[in-house]
Fold these 4 entries.
Entry 1:
Amino acid sequence: MKKTNNKGFSLVELIIVIAIMAILVGVLAPQYLKYVEKSRVSADKDQLDSFYTACTTAAADPDLTGVPNYNTSKTTFNPSGAAAGSWSKEVEDTMGNVAPKWKSKASGSAGATKWPDYQTDASGNFTVYIGTSLSISGH
């Protein structure tokens, strides 16, 4: 009997392993992509919630000036050059000056890096928006 010194895998064994890995990637990739998109939307909602809280907290302070009145259209929050003691400066300070300036992570809300939009109703309740698909409003 001849003694062979086989070290390693045969070509068939390697092809089978590669085929199994391809099947696993094909099954798991869509689930992973859904998970990533869900986490992006969740991150946007968390940022919107923080911005909403900052808006309502600043609006409740009677000493601040420039609190938004009822408006029927969205307004982009822009605190540049806001004076101390104004509503927009207070919101900016509460958010850490640059925290709410973001580019949406959700694919349906893609756009340039900017402050979120806000709108107020006749009762003074805020609705804050990022892009067109995400919003948070008061109760």
Entry 2:
Amino acid sequence: MPDSHNNGVGVDPFTGFWTDMMGKMASAGVAAPPTSPDMMAGMRKAFFGAMTEYADDFMRSEQFLTAMKKSMDSSLALRQQINQFLTSGLQSAQMPTRSDTDHIVLLVRGLEDRIVGKLDALSERVEQLETQQNGSARKTATVTKPQPQPKKKGRR
């Protein structure tokens, strides 16, 4: 709602507040301070410093922390109720829910781990058999020479 002094045209609420306060102080007989940029910066710094201190005190107060805890608890409870509602809706429509898909993913991962373990064991076993076969083949190769295979005559 625009005030009666500036009709709200081109003035933000913060500047309007300070202008209005200075005008009221001047009408009450308080002399307006000089408007040097350093003076205004100092006033702004003091104002924001005090505002920061009070906001910090307020946010660390027991009442604020209690209200924030209640708000978070309520928000979490609402989220849980919404999840339960959506889950029951999906179940009544006989569609998979998030917990169903999570369960399937866990089962597939377990199955994958078991298969990979079995493949590793088979790979080790094949390597052992190959080393045994290569070792025995070398021994037999030195003892006896392989006989040449007779050539087969093809039919025409």
Entry 3:
Amino acid sequence: MMGKTLAYLRASTDKQETNNQKLEILEFARKKEIKIDDYIELTISSRKSPKQRRIEELINRLNPSDTLIVTELSRLGRSTAEVIALINALVETNIRVVILKQNLDICQHDMNSKIIITLFSLFGELERDLVSSRTKEALAAKRAQGQILGKPKGTIQKSKFDPHVEKIKELLEIGLSVRKIAKVLGYSNHIALNTYINKRLIKPSALAA
């Protein structure tokens, strides 16, 4: 069954820029004989929240076998980690992602796409490691200055969600609802995941800061 094709257009301030993106996508669609079924178009800064950038709407309007077309990777997020998390979330739900400028055509079952996703994941892991390293260095510096560091009182029990905590942070950052995150990660109970997020005081990944 063939899905629909959706184009996502975003510019910081200039309305003309979204028009240029639309023309670029229409030219691509003409050459590939693809019909663009709908557009999500907005003129807004990448510094705005995922909700303001309509990322949640974008994800909710896409179903398995659908295709998303954007002119370049930077339209999808304000950081490498956010872009990677969004693309992984889309591909994991069997949505094809086409990025014109970088000449990427990413889908779940294609070998080249699997290599690209693996590389994306490695880049995301590298960013997390760099952030972790900087945090450890900062803590070490505070200890060297004589500051007393320690965990807050109270013990938190381990949870089945713990292995996915970084992924949960990334998906929260791109604006996914808890219900959608549970679906992407393969959990049947989004209420339990919501409780976990609230108890752990989990916030969007610091990578996007």
Entry 4:
Amino acid sequence: MYIDELKFNEQGLIPAVVCDAETNEVLMVAWMNEEAVRQTVETRKATYYSRSRQKMWVKGESSGNVQKVQWIRIDCDADVLQLGVEQTGGACHEGYRSCFFRELCDGEWKTFCERCFDPDEVYGS
């Protein structure tokens, strides 16, 4: 079975690099446990495990910024997943399309893109 081939870490988690299925733009990195992987495969809705909240969550359940999974890949060591998704809205909880919205420029981190939603309106302040 596909799940048996995955190498979860000592906490029972595997990192997932999430990218746009068409462009391969990296949108975010998250963690998945075995159940999150199974649920993602079954529903095609990206489901992750929150290490801080110690529970699973479906991307977009509170924001509406859902990720429809188009494909799932593993790396050569089977210890990292890559998810190709169709992203609705932004992937980042700070309101950007990607969590990678800052770039090192002259020794400083600078934002190089615009927000696609206001996180205070979506999540409250």
